[in-house]
Design a protein that fits this description.
342 residues; mainly alpha; 73% helix
């Protein structure tokens, strides 16, 4: 109500052309001046509305006591306006604080909602991972059982065929062995096959193509060394790993084969003999005791080029070989005997 009165006083002063702080005399003087300029008797009916406005303003202001007029139009108005400003400022501050708090609460709610969604997503992901892990383990066990069952069936089939009396069946079995060759029972079956049956070139190639580990290859070569003179050269070279880049030849095995292979295989073994070793004197003596030029020529050549330290031990035999019917043998013997220090 007080605010409305202040507003009406301010509007009335404005209608009379007065400023806040006007006195009762100022109000009366302003009314008289304006009445002379806008009274209907002076300006006609066109000034009636304006006259009603100033008359109403004058009536309101005239009804106030001098102290009330001074308070409402002067310092009181300024105080009230200052109070209104303070109240307005206080309200705006409260509104801003409330707005900021609401925004903060909304942001915290959104953050909590996102965090909850992230947590739920992680839980779902963990549940899915556990389910998949359980499924993988179950599938792995099932596949392992199936693999063992299949391997057992394949192993029994391969072992049965390797022991067949039909050469073609044995060759088919060798083609299916694969990595099973590294199992002891399969290696033994292949060893029995090589020791029991004649080995042709097809069988030799199949055995040489088996993916044997180094230890398995050496054991197989040792098992069948007594039959080396019955094997094709290709099988001997495969068993001794003479052309392998992954397996180093074993000089002990090479010597066992050197003294028992067919004459035409001696040259191949000597050609691949490791540089850091040499055949024993017993092996050289046995080879020099042969009369076959296929054995003597590569042996004498190797003694000249790779085993010169062994020449003095066999001078007597070299002199005997000067009478050998093969010209190549006689030439190599003369070369060896002519070496310095012999």
């Amino acid at each position: 109500m007080e605010m409305n009165l202040f507003g009406e006083v301010k509007a009335s002063l404005r209608a009379l052309g007065l400023e806040p702080g006007a006195t009762e005399a100022d109000v009366r003087s302003a009314f008289r001046r304006l009445a002379l300029t806008c009274h209907p008797d002076v300006v006609g009916q066109g000034g009636a509305l304006r006259f009603q406005q100033i008359a109403g303003a004058y009536s309101l202001l005239k009804g106030l006591a001098p102290d009330e007029l001074r308070q409402l139009s002067g310092a009181g108005w300024r105080q009230q306006r200052s109070l209104v400003k303070r109240r307005t400022s206080t309200f705006l501050d409260w509104y801003r604080r409330r707005r900021d708090r609401a925004r903060q609460e909304a942001e915290e709610a959104r953050r909590a909602e996102r965090e909850e969604e992230r947590r739920q997503a992680e839980e779902r992901s963990e549940r899915v991972d556990r389910v998949l892990e359980q499924y993988d383990r179950s599938l792995s066990r099932r596949l392992e059982r199936m693999s063992k069952s299949a391997d057992a069936a394949q192993l029994n089939d391969v072992l049965s065929r390797l022991g067949s009396s039909v050469a073609e069946v044995r060759r088919l079995a060798l083609g299916r062995v694969g990595t099973l060759i590294n199992r002891a029972e399969v290696r033994q079956a292949v060893s029995d096959l090589l020791c029991r049956w004649d080995v042709d070139e097809k069988t030799a190639r199949l055995v040489g193509a088996l993916p044997m580990e180094a230890g398995v290859l050496r054991r197989l070569a040792a098992d069948v060394a007594s039959r080396a003179d019955q094997f094709p050269n290709s099988l001997v070279m495969s068993l001794l790993a003479l052309r392998s880049r992954d397996v180093s030849p074993d000089p002990i095995l090479m010597e066992r084969y050197l003294v028992s292979v067919r004459p035409d295989c001696v040259a191949a073994i000597l050609r691949y003999w490791p540089d850091d070793s040499a055949p024993s004197d017993a092996a050289l003596r046995r080879l020099l005791g042969s009369e076959d030029a296929q054995v003597l020529v590569p042996l004498l050549s190797a003694m000249k080029q790779r085993f010169p330290h062994a020449v003095p031990h066999f001078r007597g035999r070299l002199e005997e070989l000067l009478e050998h019917p093969a010209p190549a043998v006689r030439v190599w013997c003369r070369v060896l005997l002519a070496q310095g220090g012999v």
